Amino acid sequence: MITADRLHSVQEYYFSKKLREVRGLINQGKPIINMGIGSPDLPPSKEAVSTLQNVLEDNKAHQYQSYQGLPELREAMANFYASRFKVHVDANTELLPLMGSKEGIMHISLAFLNVGDAVLIPNPGYPTYSSVTNLIGAKPIMYDLTAENGWLPNIKALEKTDLSKVKLMWISYPNMPTGAKIDRAKMEELVAFAEAKDLLIVNDNPYSFVLNDNPTSILQIEGAKKVALELNSLSKTFNMAGWRVGMVLGSSEHITAVLKVKSNMDSGMFYGIQKGAITALESGGDWFEKLDEVYRKRRKLMFLLVDKLDATYDKDAAGMFIWAKLPEGSKSSEAFIDELLYSKDIFIAPGTIFGSNGEGYIRFSLCVEEEKIKEAIERFK
Ligand SMILES: Cc1ncc(COP(=O)(O)O)c(C=O)c1O
């Protein structure tokens, strides 16, 4: 059977291919240390896991669930936004639970884009923004994030771009992959830009609670709900990546449009996962402190490893990665990580998988135990 034309617009995800290669090396007996992907290795809270276990006997546990999630899950998500970001949304109309924020990228794109519409996408950025845009027949317009601009959108440069077909703009702060933070003034500028250009801006925000002392949400900006949506996730904040729980927040008009798509795609989230997610969302402040304590220790060690490669980095970046610049005169990022993989059995991500502006950069994940980081450092002695 001939596949659909749209499949020509995307490639198999880099990690899907590369991790096959890495697994092949592991099967050959190579002692690979994987510092490539941001899949939290720490456990979720005991309370969240117990909740999931304890509700399995409930009558409701195995039935289809509401397309909008349990009212108490929406309430817990709204309370989380109110307490952590001081952002207030109506739990019934301005918030929708998702099965991870990744699916939200597709739902939002399907809800707002027609074939031929254009989308502003950060370079470097999460690869799913452009692959989803391509899959639905819209046109990605990559915009530059550079070290000189603090990895923030250059609005003056954007205003000079032909924006006539642009309907949607993706941003992600704290930024992935660079760890850059955004301040209120820049968020205000972005909201004003979206308003002036009549576009919908989406902040993909899964890293706010990892090594970040000032969590920001685009919805903190006055008037943002009119032009902005925000995606968030329990994957990194609560070590629940495999549970697949996320959320989208914004105006009731925008959320209704997303629900129209989503309710035609899945039939609700497993009850136990929703109940466990509620428990996680209700975690006290010490949860976040403990999480940061682990990542801070790992990061300190990881800096020593990055130093061995003579790469440079921002010590104050947010999130669970170190985004490091290769020394002048280095090989390409992909050649560099391949050499590291084959000579030291260490896997890290090349910056280019996030876009052409990632050339010259490499990304280290902090989802690796301290012992493994020490072992990696030893391999340079
Ligand atoms: C920037 C960014 N957005 C979204 C996601 C997807 O997260 P989720 O597990 O909520 O689907 C990731 C995951 O790595 C990410 O890095």
List the topology elements.
Blueprint: H1 14-27, E1 33-34, H2 46-54, H3 71-85, E2 95-98, H4 101-112, E3 118-123, H5 128-135, E4 139-144, H6 155-159, E5 166-171, H7 184-197, E6 200-204, H8 224-227, E7 228-233, E8 246-249, H9 252-262, H10 271-281, H11 285-308, E9 312-313, E10 321-325, H12 333-344, E11 346-347, E12 349-350, E13 361-365, H13 370-378
Bound molecules: pyridoxal-5'-phosphate.
Distinctive features:
381 residues, Aspartate Aminotransferase, domain 1, 2 domains, 7-stranded mixed beta sheet, 13 helices, 14% strand, globular
CATH architecture of the largest domain: 3-Layer(aba) Sandwich
String of helices and strands: HEHHEHEHEHEHEHEEHHHEEHEEEH
Give me the CATH fold name of the largest domain. Answer: Aspartate Aminotransferase, domain 2
Shape: globular
How many domains is the backbone divided into? 2
Sheet-strand content, in percent, reads 5-15%
Uncertain segments: none
Short description:
The chain has 381 residues and is of the alpha/beta class. It has helices at 14-27, 46-54, 71-85, 101-112, 128-135, 155-159, 184-197, 224-227, 252-262, 271-281, 285-308, 333-344, 370-378, and strands at 33-34, 95-98, 118-123, 139-144, 166-171, 200-204, 228-233, 246-249, 312-313, 321-325, 346-347, 349-350, 361-365. It folds into two domains: 5-44 and 285-378, Aspartate Aminotransferase, domain 1 (Alpha-Beta Complex); 60-281, Type I PLP-dependent aspartate aminotransferase-like (Major domain) (Aspartate Aminotransferase, domain 2, 3-Layer(aba) Sandwich), CATH 3.40.640.
